[in-house]
């Protein structure tokens, strides 16, 4: 992660949101790394305030690339096109000073593996206070007070502000990461596998904490996980990514229980229960791996692994189409109803 700090004054994101304008509106996002890897391909997503979008998919499907793109945290030389409208303002065309302000006060990211994201030699209270000092024009004392309040808000005693990261458990460190993400009162939280490194009990506690904070503060949430069951339990809507594309999207329970895309079906079968330890790291029953984004197969990128692929799938890619109310899937088997008996024939019967 880039750790650039802004010295200019951070302001809240431009308001002026119309009632119909989503908090986050991603349009036709494409990300190609300097290596030529097409990691995100034509992604459209929206998140309203107070809503929780889950982004699912196996490792390598472009989920973290998407998360990093949202705050322009991708390495130099990466080509990013499309629009990322945060409160109507395009993150991709913002000046750097504005981007840095938005990174804390507009949207912030909680990463997987809190130990690596925290600085081992600084007290956690100071680490939480740092963005508050930089972006909120707070005094030292004010920032320290806010850091303690944030710790209490995420369920840790304020006195833990004087602890070093190694003195905390994995779950406590992830709570600290969430406190940091909340430090500058963002409107949107992006959580990239926030509980993957935690055991099942702690995972559930952290998920409930995130849900509670989102509801209390009317935040938008983009929660990324390879575990469809976890997302179905936490989020309102789910987007399933495969090879850089959203191949299925819909109401969370619907996508989990009645997946329409063969990849969505495979993922939900692979995560049969929430917090199933056996299936947490590799989906079961799905042979092979997602394709290398530098050498994508022709046609539907899932066809080489697809149990129901037709000849056409090797040559023609499918775009998202309606599978059920508010539920889209990009599959040749979806949205093309089986030809019906011609109604005229029934009418003509004696
Ligand atoms: P996920 O989070 O779903 O596991 P990633 O977004 O991390 O997926 O990766 C998507 C694809 O982009 C992978 O094939 C990965 O190897 C590739 N990738 C990630 N980071 C880079 C990079 N810095 N340069 C080139 N390719 C990258
Ligand atoms: Mg990732």
TrEMBL record:
GO terms for cellular component: plasma membrane. GO terms for molecular function: ATP binding; ATP hydrolysis activity. InterPro entries: AAA+_ATPase, ABC_Ni/Peptide_Import, ABC_transporter-like_ATP-bd, ABC_transporter-like_CS, Oligopep_ABC_C, P-loop_NTPase. Pfam families: ABC_tran, oligo_HPY. Residues 24-268 form the ABC transporter domain. The keyword Nucleotide-binding applies. It comes from the Bacteria. It is a peripheral membrane protein. Keywords: ATP-binding, Cell membrane, Membrane, Nucleotide-binding, Transport. GO terms for biological process: peptide transport. It is found in: Cell membrane. Its main location: membrane. The keyword tRNA processing does not apply. Belongs to the ABC transporter superfamily. This is Dipeptide/oligopeptide/nickel ABC transporter ATP-binding protein. It comes from Streptomyces longispororuber.
